[in-house]
Design brief:
Layout lengths: L7 H8 L17 H12 L6 E4 L6 H12 L5 E5 L6 H4 L7 H5 L1 E4 L14 E7 L7 H11 E11 L5 H19 L2 H13 L4 H6 L4 H20 L10 H11 L6 H28 L3 H13 L3 E10 L3 E10 L3 H7 L1
Parallel strand pairs: 1-2, 1-4, 2-3, 4-5
Antiparallel strand pairs: 5-7, 6-7
Length: about 350
């Protein structure tokens, strides 16, 4: 798949959905389990007052974990959360009030891509990024991380993995949306029914629609397409990922007593939301490194002058592969001398 980047505006709109994590979860919590443990191990290495820079922060999942850890362990970390998009977690997070204590202690800044943070040289004790480092230019991002890290400072990343549950769900969700809107043309068919129904203005005309051959034919075609989609739902591990979204949206389109303009507006919003989701999933899949690309990412870190201490597949709750975890550091002067 050719690599494409969402525009900054598209990323901004994506983060407006209000979830702190990349994929919204029940109750909108932050990352937990082995993911949280990985990050807390990185924070545990830092001294009091250390500065953390989180790249491609989105709505600040890792940055908020750092702020929470800092408060719980009385470390007074300084946390900078940067993103290329115009982020505003304090306004967009659905649970901003619950996270307000942590939001206040993080400095969020948009318009700051991984490759050019605008931060001063050798200012950071730890550079972090989750599902973000691979979206930009890994070589330039590695050089920028090297520039802003203090000697001995650490870098920790979680990147996408080609076999992870995140990538699998992205592929499935994309396939479901394409089934609903592409192959079965559910929204196009719904719009045709709505347009046919719009000609009936009086209650009598609306009752007579069921005797209108053209309208009934359009309705039968829509219902048959919905039935085919429902029959195929069982092949997906999570049909709600796309099929459920579209079918629930269709129910809203044909809710009683809506005017034709309201039905059309609902269809338009559904299509816009589906298109945005598909662009996001296409971008995720394009950014996900295969084995060779992951090796090149590690090499970019090394070429920038960073020492890669290790990497491993990160498994969540003992069974769900979530990505690659990478840990490294910037050499101190004595490290550089020892390598000569």
């Amino acid at each position: 798949m050719p690599r494409r980047l969402l525009t900054d505006d598209e990323w901004e709109q994506f983060w407006r959905h209000g979830s702190v994590t990349t994929f919204e979860r029940s109750g909108n919590p932050n990352y937990d389990g082995e993911i949280r443990e990985f990050w807390e191990r990185q924070f545990a290495t830092l001294r009091e007052g250390a500065r953390i820079v989180d790249l491609a922060t989105g709505n600040g999942a890792v940055a908020l974990l750092a702020a929470e850890y800092s408060a719980a362990h009385d470390r007074q970390f300084r946390v900078d959360a940067l993103d290329r998009a115009g982020i505003r977690p304090e306004k967009d997070l659905k649970e901003a009030e619950a996270a307000r204590e942590w939001l206040k202690s993080v400095r969020f800044r948009g318009g700051a891509p991984n490759e050019c943070t605008g931060l001063e040289r050798e200012c950071a004790d730890l550079v972090t990024s989750q599902y973000g480092f691979e979206y930009g230019d890994p070589s330039a991002s590695a050089r920028e991380a090297m520039r802003i890290l203090k000697p001995g400072g650490r870098i920790a990343l979680i990147t996408h993995h080609a076999n992870s549950v995140v990538v699998r769900e992205a592929r499935e969700g994309l396939e479901q949306h394409r089934l609903c809107l592409g192959r079965e043309q559910l929204l196009t068919r719904a719009r045709r029914v709505v347009d046919a129904m719009a000609s009936a203005e009086s209650d009598f005309e609306k009752r007579m629609l069921k005797h209108d051959a053209r309208t009934e034919n359009l309705r039968r075609k829509l219902n048959a397409a919905v039935a085919r989609v429902q029959q195929q739902a069982g092949q997906f591990s999570d049909p709600g990922n796309g099929i459920g979204f579209v079918l629930n949206g269709l129910q809203a389109v044909f809710a009683p007593r809506l005017q034709a303009t309201e039905r059309r507006a609902t269809i338009r919003r559904l299509r816009e939301a589906s298109d945005a989701y598909c662009r996001r999933m296409e971008d995720l899949l394009a950014a996900t490194p295969d084995a060779g690309e992951f090796d090149r990412l590690l090499e970019h870190l090394r070429s920038a002058g960073l020492i890669v201490d290790g990497w491993f597949p990160l498994v969540y709750r003992g069974e769900a592969l979530m990505g690659w975890a990478v840990a490294g550091r910037k050499p101190r002067a004595e490290d550089a001398a020892a390598m000569e």
